[in-house]
Amino acid sequence: MQHGFYFDHKLCVKCHACEIACKAWNEVELGPRWREVVKITAGTFPNVSAMNVSMACMHCGDAPCKTACPVSAITKKVEDGVVVVDQDKCIGCGFCTWACPFNAPQLSAAAGKMEKCNFCSTPGMARPHGMPRACEEICPTGAIKSGPMPALAARGRERAAGRLAAAGQGLPSLMLDAQSRFGPAE
């Protein structure tokens, strides 16, 4: 079953704790960031809006980084859908970063190889799927959640319905969901 992340930008305070936890848990060297908090702004003064987004590998269903890799060093695990880089095969060419719309793969200066979020499955430090990822566990506001995609889709639907109801807009007569794509909610 495909696993992934759910992120609520309204809860993110840009504390960078998720970045630090990711680096510490996975022993990522100085430089590459497997998770990075970015600020996205829009508009012009005085009508400016901004939001914080914690970005990591999205473990895409049809991962463009996997397709771009000339030596097949990037694979998608069948059991959980996590996209991983085989360090023994990687030649550090960077094609995966160019192909990735999120610039998730990063070059390790020490190893000369590409690396990225592996959903906390670093050998010897792998977290079981029932446990939160390091970034999720440390997030003080609960902005990051991980798990099976059907459960995350259900969470997103619930939050969206709650926001609509709280805004006094009422609930929509039709709500599109991810059930057909990811299966029923758990």
| Helix count from the secondary structure assignment | 6
How many domains, in number, for the residues?
A: 1
Low-confidence stretches: none
Give a quick account of the main beta sheet: strands, pairing sense, barrel closure: 2 strands, antiparallel
- The CATH architecture: 2-Layer Sandwich
Give the CATH topology: Alpha-Beta Plaits
Fraction of residues in β-strands: 15-25%
Rg, Cα atoms, Å: 18 Å
Secondary-structure element order, N to C: EHEEHEEHEEHEHH
Structural class: alpha+beta
- The average pLDDT is 88
Overall CATH class: Alpha Beta
Portion of residues in helices?
25-40%
Biggest sheet strand order reads: 1-8
Question: Per the principal axes of the C-alpha atoms, what is the gross shape?
Answer: globular
Distance between the termini: 12 Å
Extended strand count: 8
Please render the helix and strand layout as text.
Elements: E1 3-7, H1 17-26, E2 35-44, E3 47-56, H2 64-68, E4 74-76, E5 83-85, H3 95-99, E6 106-108, E7 113-115, H4 134-138, E8 144-148, H5 149-166, H6 179-182
Antiparallel strand pairs: 1-8, 2-3, 4-5, 6-7
Mind explaining what this structure looks like?
With 186 residues, the protein is an alpha+beta fold. It has one domain: Alpha-Beta Plaits. The strands form four sheets. The protein has a two-stranded antiparallel ribbon. β4 and β5 form a beta hairpin. It is globular and about 55 Å long. The N and C termini lie close together (12 Å).
